[in-house]
């Protein structure tokens, strides 16, 4: 039996690779309630001497399993038919990956509802802002001069009645005045926010080619309105082709590198929207999107990290983008997010990790960064869905690697896997049983090869 002390010392010796790489990680905002687990606690294999059927509050189930019970369970599993490796299919992976089905909230321009509040001046005469001063306003006329307008009223107007307004905005995007262009981009942003017919009208009115130059505008508010307008327009399928054919991918990546937090998030969502067309995935990766997405994953807000995870997941369905993600250092922050609770990021991070196990360099990086220990921790005390993702990822790491199976055993993985095979969801039980069968095969091979 492995003691708690020995377990910790073992972990420190097996995860030394991760300490040799520089890694700059910005903690989540203080407003987010985050509980971080310490990687390596999964080596805890202290169990009671008696098997208790009533677990109560006595701790994780696996801590109540004696060695004999574990062996009995493994023997029980050995009587099952041989494992068919093809059963770990992409179909099951795609079912689990529905954690991304919410489109990471990028279909809703949530920042727009809060933006005006952010720019309302404080009435306190003693208050002073430490931010950069607002650019001096330039004259706007008519509809563009209005700082506020009712989106509810605009959404109730039929598209044909909006044509003059849209034409005014499109023409104003080519003005020499930054304020006029900013206001026009803002109006188009809100007009395209919720209505598909408005998105179609704006796309057909020629707005997309004249919005693109604003993505490189030095005024951050203008850039933010433009990138968000393009995001909203991209939700209309025919506009996706117009946007990519206009050369928007490189400009969106520029925003991803240089924009405000909101601009970066919406640029990531815009790239995600374009990546829903398969032929765009390679183009987006080739234009350099992966590295700034990894940077957003490391340093972004909670929403920014979700957007980065969702976009990386979609892009990494292509092998070449998987390689780019690993080379850009995506694995370390992904492993770190697996060990976070309370942010809603852990499950998404595990799905992206599962995707990266599809290439050898991805598997090697996950092992190097302490991924097995982190995943075992999730099996110990993660959510039901998290346990499904974790055991799936471990299975992918171990299915063709005897070395990785040995690492999993040394990380104390067998007891929590046995417990999961008895108490998990139907999918988790199946995956745990399959993985335990592989581990048992490795143990049998090792014992028969020993002189």
Provide the fold topology:
Blueprint: H1 4-14, E1 35-36, H2 67-78, H3 90-96, H4 110-119, H5 151-156, H6 159-172, H7 178-191, H8 196-204, H9 207-211, H10 220-234, H11 237-245, H12 248-258, H13 261-275, H14 278-286, H15 290-299, H16 302-315, H17 319-327, H18 331-338, E2 340-341, H19 346-356, H20 360-368, H21 371-381, H22 384-398, H23 402-410, H24 414-423, H25 426-449
Flag low-confidence runs.
1-63, 85-99, 101-108, 110-133, 447-451
- Overall geometric form: elongated
Task: Please give the number of β-strands.
Answer: 2
Helix vs. strand class: mainly alpha
Continuous helix count: 25
Sheet of most strands: 2 strands, antiparallel
Distance between the termini: 24 Å
Based on CA atoms alone, the radius of gyration comes out at 26 Å
Mean pLDDT: 76
Beta strand %: under 5%
Secondary structure: helix percent? 55-70%
Strand order of the largest sheet: 1-2
Task: List the secondary-structure elements in sequence, H or E.
Answer: HEHHHHHHHHHHHHHHHHHEHHHHHHH
């Amino acid at each position: 039996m492995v003691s708690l002390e020995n377990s910790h010392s073992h972990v420190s010796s097996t995860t030394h690779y991760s300490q040799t790489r520089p890694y700059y990680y910005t903690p989540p905002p203080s407003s987010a309630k985050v509980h971080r687990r310490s990687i390596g606690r999964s080596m805890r294999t202290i169990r009671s001497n008696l098997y208790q059927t009533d677990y109560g509050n006595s701790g994780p189930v696996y801590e109540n399993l004696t060695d004999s019970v574990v062996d009995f369970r493994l023997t029980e599993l050995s009587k099952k038919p041989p494992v068919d490796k093809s059963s770990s299919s992409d179909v099951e992976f795609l079912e689990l990956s529905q954690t991304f089905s919410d489109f990471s909230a990028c279909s809703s321009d949530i920042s727009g509802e809060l933006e005006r509040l952010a720019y309302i001046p404080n009435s306190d005469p003693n208050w002073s802002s430490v931010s950069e001063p607002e650019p001096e306003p330039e004259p706007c006329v008519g509809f563009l001069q209005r700082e506020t307008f009712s989106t509810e009223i605009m959404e109730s107007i039929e598209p044909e009645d909006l044509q003059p307004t849209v034409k005014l905005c499109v023409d104003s995007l080519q003005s020499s005045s930054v304020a006029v262009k900013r206001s026009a981009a803002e109006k188009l942003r809100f007009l395209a926010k919720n209505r598909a017919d408005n998105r179609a009208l704006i796309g057909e009115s020629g707005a997309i080619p004249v919005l693109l130059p604003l993505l490189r505008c030095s005024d951050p508010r203008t850039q933010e309105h433009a990138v968000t307008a393009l995001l909203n327009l991209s939700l209309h399928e025919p506009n996706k082709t117009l946007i990519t054919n206009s050369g928007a991918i490189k400009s969106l990546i520029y925003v991803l590198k240089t924009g405000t937090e909101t601009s970066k998030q919406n640029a990531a969502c815009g790239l995600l929207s374009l990546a829903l067309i398969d032929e765009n995935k390679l183009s987006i990766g080739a234009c350099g999107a992966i590295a700034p997405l990894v940077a957003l994953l490391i340093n972004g807000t909670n929403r920014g990290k979700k957007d980065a995870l969702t976009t990386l997941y979609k892009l990494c369905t292509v092998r070449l983008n998987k390689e780019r993600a690993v080379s850009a250092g995506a694995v370390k922050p992904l492993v770190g997010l697996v060990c976070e609770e309370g942010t809603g990021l852990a499950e998404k991070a595990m799905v992206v990790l599962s995707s990266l196990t599809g290439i050898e360099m991805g598997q090697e990086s996950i092992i190097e960064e302490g991924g097995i220990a982190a995943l075992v921790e999730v099996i110990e005390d993660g959510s039901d869905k998290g346990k499904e993702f974790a055991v799936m990822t471990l299975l992918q790491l171990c299915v063709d690697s005897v070395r990785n199976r040995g690492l999993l055993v040394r990380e104390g993985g067998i007891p929590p896997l046995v417990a999961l095979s008895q108490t998990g969801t139907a999918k988790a039980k199946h995956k745990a049983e399959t993985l335990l069968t592989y581990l048992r095969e490795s143990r049998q091979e090792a014992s028969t090869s020993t002189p």
